[in-house]
Amino acid sequence: MQVSFIARLLAPVLLIAAAPAALSQTYPAKPIRFIVGFPPGGTNDIVARVLAPKLGEYLGQQVVVENRGGANTAIASEMFVRLPPDGYTIMLNAPGHATNPALLKLNFDSIRDFAFITLAAESQNLLVVHPSFPPRTVKELIALSKRRPGDINYGSSGIGTTVHLSAELFQFMTGTKWVHIAYKGGGPGLIALLSGEVSLYFGNVPTVIRQARDGKLRAVATTGAKRTPAAPDIPTVAEAGVPGYEVSTFYGVSAPAKTPRPIIDRLHAEIVRALNAPDTRDRLQGLGADPVGNTPEQYTAFMQNEIAKWGKVIKAAGIRGE
Amino acid sequence: MDLLSNLALGFGVAFSLENLLYCFAGVALGTLVGVLPGVGPLVTIAMLFPITFHLPAVPAIIMLAGIFYGAQYGGSTTSILVNLPGETASAVTCIDGYQMARQGRAGPALATAALASFFAGCVGTLLIALAGPTLGEWALKFGAAEYTAIMLMALVASAVMTQGDAVKGFAMVVLGLLIGVVGVDVNSGMARYSFGIPELVDGIGFTVVAVGLFAVAEIVLNLESRQAREVYTGPVTGLMPTVRDLKDAAWPTVRGTAVGAFFGVLPGAGPALSSFATYMLEKKIARDPSRFGKGAIEGVAAPEAANNAAAQTAFIPMLTLGIPATATMALMLGALTLQGVATGPQVMHEKPDLFWGLIASMWIGNFLLVILNLPLVGLWVKLLTVPYRWLFPSIILFCCIGNFSVSNNPFDLYLCALIGVLGYVLVKLECEPAPLLLGYVLGPLLEENLRRALLIARGDPTVFFTRPISAAFMIATVVILVVMVAPAARGMRRGT
Questions:
Q1: Angle of helix B41-48 relative to helix B57-82, nearest 10 degrees?
Q2: Closest chain A residue by Cα to residue B324
């Protein structure tokens, strides 16, 4: 905190000192702010704090993580898009970036106001059920849900989270109807599942895999396009009976729009290098996140696709944020 | 005996030089961030997170845990000295702690807080060691209906919080309730009372409310009087508590510990509620309740014991179920995960050095905290001799730093100033801020759980009476209500 505080105090001074023409040659000439749209403590924050030191090492400047939580990254984004596009601020994008356009009235454009650098890592959710809940497979779950519409409770870590939306996408694609019980955060949501207050839950893989292995919960399927390396024995929802189903919890890095291309390229190169460093790779995988590191163009297309997909699901499910 | 050999193993681990050093670093840092409002253990642990990559798992978790419970010690310091709650859980300590300081009894108040915290910390740790897994399973018996019943009981009991006019007290609770429900509703996802301001979508933070109501309002009030500002009227009478003080504080400490340990295990309740609950209990059973709010030592000992006991037992869901109940616990779990340690029911058997080492380190840590905090009492009390014209800008500065650091957003500072004005107006109207804060804590919890319970029961209200634990709390609520209303009713009959 102290470092970021000093960095912030010095920022205006350094800004005047850095002439725009010299930007790409001398970049980076001062610490870089890495904005996280959540308060400290969540997986997003941890991912940023895993990446930051490595990236700083490669860039030869400190990368300082700065939390600005609120409205599932929307508050951070609103501030972020107004910052000078000089490469000294980057931001971690989360799934909220793709779902917020459909949920909230935003004062920025989720595509045009950003220069997407790379999709750093992706993780997936694992559909787990309470051991007393009968279905063992996706097909059995669909059959039971069809027999008892509006009867099954599923938990989530809050409205608009991927835990919630994984379930909404499932119902949307299978024509089933469950009752959503929202909790304040993943911890309380999981406790409700363990106690049997809710029957099923789409938890981020590392948060539930252990309980599933210990028999406190039963794993049914994962939400990714491919099976997760953390549990290759568990099928994906898509292969188990809902073709085309995919939910990715992603961690991407972007800069404000109009950040010069040479700077974007430099950041891209160093972030990908950081992602490929064995210790970073191990840590991300420990968090259930598989490093990706695609190109700015691929990441932009990915984001456009995600925004369109969730827009449809959120509209169909009738979820509203305001 | 198994426990003894396990503890021997734990102390063997915790007493290694490296682990002792990290334990000390953790609790010292925890004390420091506890003193600063807003800068809590969560932010600190997040900052130190990358450092833990370069540490083995055991010292890493020992240090992070030290920060967490160390902050509970530090949090009371500014509450007592300048009416500034350093941590969420120490807001209640302001009520009587600050009054003690004004009467020249800051020393005994601080020492009592440290000793009560120490006792509670030891008992809390013992509970984890003796009954961790059992308590973890037991916590799972508390669903939405049970939480609703507990919150309702606390809300009914909140009438005890008020000193004077009951109607005003009730109004304050309701006002707090309204402030508490600002932001996105958990159950429906609708933003309420946010007026299109994005910063309000996630609600108004506890630090903002508590600091505004207590610290800022108090400063405004002190600046109002034109004469020499003698905030601290009483002469400083000794730094340490007297034998009588200790006697007065003993049972409240024990009860506070019990209440705190209970709420700590429940992931949905939290330390803030535990300190309120124990304060209400003490006031209700006190021989002379009117002393509360005027510097009763029980009002310091009980909540401080409660928040520290809760801080220790809050580890139970994480260690035994592998599920973090709070964001701070999630971060610690994250640190362990990155170390390749998967916590869960098996951790006691798979990583006994980690589990028992952590528990032993908590004992050592609590001991270090008392050693660290008792000598500091003299230093803190000297701080009160600083002329008020120097003291108050510093308090305001710390309020600003603390509030800003929560989300790096200047909006929170404006909001805190605004709530400070509200606090000032309330004092002028002879309304007390404590019931407001309680309403703020309770309201959203009650609403969230009530609606969740009814949603799960598909709208059937009998659910609160058919589940045994919930029914027990409901009956207790009725009993409390009768006990409170009966004397008033009798008084009325006599009056006519």
A1: 150
A2: A187
Which of B276-280, B333-337, B343-347 has the weakest average pLDDT? B343-347
Categorize the per-residue pLDDT at B236 as very low, low, confident or very high, splitting at 50, 70 and 90.
low
Residue B390 has pLDDT above 70, yes or no: yes
- Please return the burial class of A214, using the count of CB atoms within 10 Å of its CB with bins 0-12, 13-18 and 19+: middle
Residue located via tokens 């006519």: B496
For A79, nearest residue in chain B (alpha carbons): B409
Mean pLDDT of A216-240: 92
Find the distance separating the first CA and the last CA of chain B, reported in whole Å.
67
In angstroms, what separates the C-alpha of B257 from chain A's closest C-alpha? 24
> Quick check: B128 and B1 in contact, CB under 8 A?
no
Q: Is the pLDDT of residue A288 over 70?
A: yes
CB contact under 8 A, B198 and A211: no
Strand pairing of A89-93 and A32-36? parallel
- Residue B491: what are its φ and ψ, rounded to 5°? -60, -40
How many angstroms separate the CA atoms of A259 and A89, rounded?
Answer: 10
Q: Write out chain B residues lying below 8 Å of A74, CB-based.
A: 198, 201
DSSP one-letter code for A123: E
Q: How far apart are CA A231 and CA B61, in angstroms?
A: 26
Minimal C-alpha gap between B453 and chain A (Å) = 9
The single-letter DSSP state of residue B297 is T
Taking only the tens place, the pLDDT of each residue in A141-182 is 999 999 999 999 999 988 888 899 999 999 999 999 999 999
CA distance A193 to A216: 10
Check: CATH 3.90.650.10 for A125-222? no
Q: How far apart are CA A149 and CA A137, in angstroms?
A: 18
DSSP state of A61: S
Are A2-122+248-317 and A125-222 the same fold in CATH?
yes
CA distance readout (Å), B232 to B37, B93, B221, B384: 22, 17, 14, 8
pLDDT band at B237 (very low <50, low <70, confident <90, very high): low
Q: Which run of H or of E encompasses A200?
A: strand A200-204
Would you say how long chain B is, in residues?
Answer: 496
Structural domain boundaries of chain A? 2-122+248-317, 125-222
Average pLDDT value for residue range B11-30: 90
**What is this structure's pTM?**
0.84
Nearest to A209 by CA among A128, A299, A133, A301: A128
Answer whether the bond into residue A260 is a cis peptide, omega within 30°. no
In chain B, which residues have their Cβ closer than 8 Å to the Cβ of A159? 184, 186, 188-189
**Residue A261 identity (one-letter amino acid):** R
Q: List the Cα angle B417/B419/B425 in 5-degree steps.
A: 110
* Cα four-point dihedral sign B114, B115, B116, B117: positive
Distance CA A294, CA B421 (A): 52
Cβ-nearest to A70 among B201, B317, B334: B201
Q: How far apart are CA B61 and CA B10, in angstroms?
A: 14
Q: Find the angle CA(A84)-CA(A90)-CA(A91) to the nearest 5 degrees.
A: 120
Listed residue (A207, A210, A202, A306) closest to A252, CA to CA: A306
| Confidence bin at A116 (pLDDT 50/70/90) | very high
CA A8, CA A241: separation in Å to the nearest integer? 52
Q: What superfamily would CATH give domain A2-122+248-317?
A: Bordetella uptake gene, domain 1 (3.40.190.150)
- With CB atoms and an 8 Å threshold, state whether A70 touches B346: no
**Closest-CA residue of chain B to A53:** B50
Pairing of strands B191-192, A153-156: unpaired
- Considering all CA atoms of chain B, what is the largest pairwise distance in Å, rounded to the nearest integer? 76
